[in-house]
Design brief:
The structure is a homodimer. With about 200 residues, chain A is mainly alpha-helical. Helices cover about 65% and strands about 0% of the residues of chain A. The longest helix of chain A has 28 residues. The N terminus of chain A is likely disordered. At the A-B interface, helix 6, helix 7 and helix 8 of A face helix 6, helix 7 and helix 8 of B. Chain A binds a DNA duplex (30 and 30 nucleotides) through loops.
Chain lengths: ~200, ~200
DNA sequence: TGCGGTACTGACCGGTCAGTCATTATATTG
DNA sequence: CAATATAATGACTGACCGGTCAGTACCGCA
């Protein structure tokens, strides 16, 4: 990758109508909105382009196909956010229980209402058609997340905070109700409502 | 609906190339396979027809649109099965705990592996596009199921089998891990595996 | 044996949309 | 201010598929 050495010489934040570094991000952002709103099949690339204030053809300059763009969206939105929580889990000074009832819980409670919840739904609906995508997701989010939770719980046990629990082997259980809440909301919002408390 | 009075006079099970009562079911069955395999958008009615050994136009004789067919599939597959469990829940002689650990658990354990699991996934991916569908599902399966579970738990409490529990108000929690397992399987089957034990 | 009815066929139509590409607009360089 | 490069445009194409409908095959019945 050749670095653009002279680009910085321009005055710092001029409007710049062409900007090869930001365009992809803009497009990904627009695509996220569209996908979240309508799902994969129902999203027309033309709309994505329009939302990004760009011509229909441009996305194809940066992403070979619609699917490729879709993957980019998932990657960009998901990983970054989970990574934050994971970092905090690794480095926290709190006791395990405090952490679970504090940062973890609030992270988890805010999820079902956030726009990231859409991504979960998208992953469920489209995932099985794109194995590399679920694999990527699995490796980068799920398995690392589980591993971290396991460590957190182990630490709690070691310190005698609580006794061994099946949770250690199935940290998924901690997340299951949240997933439930996300889907519940997505499906039945109009009919009923569901809390995420412990 | 005029009954075919003379049709039965034919020898009992001749091959019958025309059969107005069974066709719809055959089509729904074929559609179920296709939808389960490829999802809603990716399923072509032509393939459904082919699978049902029928011409492309016929499904439209019985179902006005693709969506209508889709709904018929969901309805036919889901309700019947859940109804069985519900009945048993209502009439069982077992103690609440026995019931939960017995029939309930085995029903639940067999779900993620069965083909009905696909329907759950389908409902999640397509549901938000068809509100009447989720409403139907909600009224016929979810809310009745919850109600029944609540009664089962209440009965257990009354009989002093166990003390009041948050489960009474959120029976969803009992189902959450199962849902988790279903999705887990659907998404990550290739990478990992997950149990449904308690 | 022919008549009317209806379950069924499959060629076809019209609309949609992913993806292409010839062309234009802008930036960069010398 | 050319000359070159490349970001960006948007009209266009080709495939695909939901839905239609004029016609056919087979039925029971007189």
């Amino acid at each position: 990758m050749a670095e653009t050495k002279s680009a910085e010489r321009k005055q710092a934040k001029a409007k710049r109508r062409r900007d090869k570094e930001v365009r992809p991000q803009e497009i990904v952002a627009a695509a996220f909105e569209e996908f979240a709103e309508k799902g994969f099949a129902e999203t027309r690339l033309e709309d994505v382009a329009a939302r990004a204030k760009v011509s229909k053809g441009l996305p194809y300059l940066y992403f070979k196909t619609k699917v490729e763009l879709f993957k980019a969206v998932i990657r960009s939105v998901i990983t970054s956010h989970f990574e934050v929580l994971r970092q905090r889990m690794e480095t926290t000074e709190l006791s395990t229980e405090e952490f679970l009832k504090g940062p973890f819980l609030s992270f988890i409670q805010e999820l079902p209402g956030s726009r990231r919840a859409f991504i979960v739904r998208l992953l469920i609906s489209e995932g099985y058609k794109h194995p590399e995508l679920t694999q990527f997701y699995y490796e980068n989010v799920i398995s690392r997340g589980l591993e971290t939770m396991r460590r957190l719980i182990d630490r709690g046990i070691e310190r005698g905070e609580f006794k061994p629990t099946p949770l250690r082997d199935y940290p998924q259980l901690l997340v299951a109700p949240v997933l439930m809440a996300i889907l519940w909301r997505a499906l039945f919002e109009r009919h009923d409502h569901l809390d995420t408390n412990k």
